[in-house]
Specification:
Mean pLDDT: 94
Number of strands: 21
Distance between the termini: 29 Å
Strand content: 15-25%
Oligomer: single chain
Radius of gyration: 25 Å
Number of helices: 15
Length: 526
């Protein structure tokens, strides 16, 4: 797997003596008003409090650093970035203070706070060659989580999509070339392992974002499959690809139906990882790969349709997760299933009223061709269960109802209660929040069909519980006894606003880090 263009290393030299272009320190907001006469841990000037890691910098400024930062407008708010020329006070010509919010009581800042702070700082320093981060990384049980957060945030926050511009952009700055993270002991084996892992994770995130951000005319199902296959084979994964003929012969009615409206035929890509010595558990990952979604015959409104190039974000995330798994080598068997299709209106497109026979033999009445994701996922889930798995994690940009219910940052999760709770816990740990949702029986009853086993959406076209309808439909294709979770990332997978924290504009790579966390967690189960 391709490594990030930015390199990451550890350093334990006094931050004030580091020969870098910029030195990043943390600063907390302070609610008190009395001046204790000092700064740094245990004291504050005005409304600012320097975070751990800034001690030698504060000393070099003779106790006036927070006062100077306050004059520049610093408040310590999370993600705020303030730059200060050092004029020879320390070796680095620039000190950058990044806000960490209120000082935590008796603990290091939350990992997500550090992750976003590191991302904000590195993004603001684009164009610099060498940057050092001297953020709070404690020398205790909190150290691994803090270091992982800082390292991931720095690498992920520095991502920039190459784009398609034909002329140089004067305001466009290249990502930071070298990042060093200050720790108590740069030779510590556990710390070095965290840096190595962060590099692998950041590569997976960058790969996902690149796929999602690629123009849809350049990433149609066959070319998307070719790109995934090339990367997977290079990583040493086992690959199987079904083209349109094999899909039709194999009974993958959902994938064939959705893909038949496009002259770029559908694909199903299977990637397999088998550890040298596993724990006997089998994980299936499934990701939706609609390379562009017009809605088909049930066509979408034109406004915002261009963002439908991101409707393959689930497949991109799963494919990149598999590339990371090939490097991290967890002790668990993992197979990924990536159904890919382009949902287009044409004389050959599938229609409302069609009845489609799925891979597991169930017959589905199509009522809305814009509910295409569940059609291709139903086939992929059924195939994964037929191959055999103990856990099934599926992720997709499935419903606008997810955005309505939970917004653009929190994914919706449905499935086996215990696994859904594990998804929620993992998401919180890595900064990709998810919230379990119910699957009421009345939602399933509303999808009863007069002519088939199930309607693709509510039979009366009632959109109430729209997100839940997606989960209820997918449940029909999960074999009894398989722990499963459907992760709806319609909102979190694509960021259309201005960059924030370690999120850049475009694809976010949610939920790559959640999936990796879960795979490693299951691998550690006895």
């Amino acid at each position: 797997m391709t490594s990030p263009s930015t390199t990451l290393s550890l350093v334990d030299t006094d931050p004030a003596e580091l020969a870098v272009d910029a030195l990043v320190i943390g600063v907390h907001s302070q609610t008190g008003s009395a001046d204790t006469g000092g700064e740094g841990p245990g004291g504050y000037a005005g409304t600012l409090l320097l975070a751990t890691g800034a001690e030698s910098i504060a000393a070099a400024f003779d106790g006036r650093l927070t006062e100077t930062l306050a004059l520049l407008g610093a408040t310590g708010a999370q993600g705020e970035v303030i730059k200060l020329a050092t004029l020879g006070t320390v070796t680095a010509p620039l000190v950058v203070a990044v806000g960490l919010g209120a000082e935590p009581t008796g603990a290091a800042p939350a990992p997500e706070t550090l992750r976003r702070a590191a991302g904000s700082a590195i993004r603001a320093l684009a164009g610099a060659d060498r940057v050092a981060l001297s953020l709070p990384v404690p020398d205790d049980e909190d150290a691994p989580a803090a270091l992982r957060a800082v390292a991931e945030g720095a690498l992920i926050g520095g991502y920039r999509f190459a784009g398609y511009k034909t002329r140089p952009q004067p305001t466009r700055r290249t990502p930071v070339v070298e990042i060093s993270v200050h720790v108590p002991d740069a030779a510590d084996a556990a710390a070095r392992a965290e840096i190595a892992r962060a590099t692998v994770v950041a590569s997976a995130v960058a790969r996902t974002r690149d796929w999602v951000n690629t123009a849809p005319n350049e990433l149609r199902p066959p070319s998307f499959a070719d790109s995934v296959v090339a990367a997977a084979e290079a990583a040493g994964l086992t690959v199987e690809v079904l083209d349109e003929k094999a899909l039709a012969a194999g009974g993958y009615g959902g994938i064939v139906a959705v893909g038949q409206g496009s002259d770029a035929p559908p694909r199903l890509v299977k990637l397999s990882y088998q550890p040298p010595a596993g724990n006997g558990k089998r994980i299936a990952l499934v990701g939706k790969g609609i390379t562009f979604d017009t809605g088909g015959v049930s066509i979408k409104p034109a406004q915002g349709m261009w963002e439908m190039k991101s409707d393959m974000a689930g497949a991109a995330a799963v494919a990149a997760t598999m590339l990371a798994i090939a490097e991290l080598k967890p002790a668990v068997s993992v197979q990924a299933y990536l159904p890919m299709a382009e949902n287009m209106p044409s004389a050959t497109a599938y229609r409302p009223g069609d009845v489609v026979t799925m891979f597991n033999g169930k017959r589905v009445e199509v009522l809305n061709t814009d509910a295409e994701g569940r059609m291709i996922l139903g086939d992929a889930i059924a195939r994964a269960c037929a191959d055999g798995c103990d856990y099934l994690l599926e992720t997709s940009t499935l419903t606008g109802g997810q955005v309505v219910a939970l917004g653009k940052r929190v994914a919706g999760v449905m499935g086996t209660p215990e696994l859904c709770d594990r998804v929620r816990t993992a998401g919180n740990a890595v900064g990709e929040p998810a919230w379990p949702m119910p699957m009421p029986e009345d939602v399933r009853t509303g999808m009863d069909s007069d002519v088939a086993d199930i309607s693709q959406v509510n039979a009366g076209m009632d959109r109430a519980g729209h997100m839940l309808q997606g989960g209820v439909f997918l449940r029909e294709f999960v074999t009894d006894g398989v722990d499963w979770a459907h992760i709806d990332i319609a909102g979190p997978s694509y960021h259309s606003g201005e960059p924030t924290g370690y999120w850049t504009k475009g694809g976010t790579a949610v939920p790559v880090r959640t999936l990796l966390h879960l795979v490693e967690e299951i691998a550690a189960d006895n």
